[in-house]
């Protein structure tokens, strides 16, 4: 019986139903509160754009909510775990289950199964909805909440290098030789690496070779002279392929698109550790929901009247939030090249799986 993790179908559905209801309730509360706070800080910027009104605020909310759901779903699973297990403990239901011969792992099995399903749904939701919402929202923010760009290839805040020189654009649309940049700034450096000239332009198009800046205002550092001109060709070393590579946004690409972008980077000998870490995290991130019942399981056991139930809940919450802190830190280290990409994405998950199992076995099994 100890190896049968679901000895009772009725009990499995009962625990899964309790868990799902609490996950949805906690997720709704978190998203509503955070969305309200986000709107308080962003409404002024949205309404500042000419013609924007209530419909644009609703559009922003519809684009932002998928991001909030994706980010805070694991937190919701952690809180739902603690609430569910504390309630079962207080009502002596855990005592009844253990008296019937169930082990700690069998008590947790329905919650772990539910969390695994949540992880799969989270991955699909991220791939189909969150990436598209992120791409559209970033493009809209790049347009300063003006008309929403219809081009699916829109990218914002693009930063490119041509040797020591830098080309920055607030918005990039199109692909291939039809690429068009808006809000362009060109920083030209001299042989010593010091800034020699700064050029601002309304737009830039591909000039084969180089990029043609239009409606220019240039500032010469040496003479402190500012002058306007119609056009200028810059960045002759910047090719279309290089710009398409440099403008990759891992948060706005799905798992398979990002994999192709990484292959393109590796084909030209570019550094891929940051993209690779984000690629692995697209798998390990949703799986964090599966880990939460294990980390919060300490709240299920121990007698409620002993006075230690609240302390157990605090320990479970501390373990859960410690995972998120370590996960973010490891991912940051992976982005900077301090950790190998696979280790940055998966080490926190495996580490806290071992910690959760150790706590559960040593205290309850």
Q: What does this entry look like structurally?
A:
By secondary structure, the protein is an alpha+beta fold. The chain folds into two domains: 9-144 and 274-364, no CATH class; 155-247, lipopolysaccharide transport protein A fold (Sandwich). Helix content is 59%, strand content 16%. The two termini are 15 Å apart. The model has no long low-confidence stretch (mean pLDDT 84).
SSE topology:
Blueprint: H1 9-48, H2 54-90, H3 93-99, H4 104-142, E1 155-162, E2 165-173, E3 180-189, E4 195-206, E5 211-220, E6 225-234, H5 240-246, H6 255-267, H7 273-295, H8 309-335, H9 341-364
Antiparallel strand pairs: 1-2, 2-3, 3-4, 4-5, 5-6
The radius of gyration over CA amounts to 26 Å
pLDDT averaged over residues: 84
Largest sheet: 6 strands, antiparallel
Could you say which overall geometry the principal axes of the C-alpha atoms support?
A: elongated
Structural class: alpha+beta
Low-confidence stretches: none
The total count of strands amounts to: 6
Helix content, binned percent: 55-70%
Please indicate the percent range of residues in DSSP E strands (runs of 2 or more): 15-25%
Short description:
With 365 residues, the protein is α+β, with helices and mostly antiparallel strands. It has helices spanning 9-48, 54-90, 93-99, 104-142, 240-246, 255-267, 273-295, 309-335, 341-364; strands at residues 155-162, 165-173, 180-189, 195-206, 211-220, 225-234. It has two domains: 9-144 and 274-364, no CATH class; 155-247, Lipopolysaccharide (LPS) transport protein A like domain (lipopolysaccharide transport protein A fold, Sandwich).
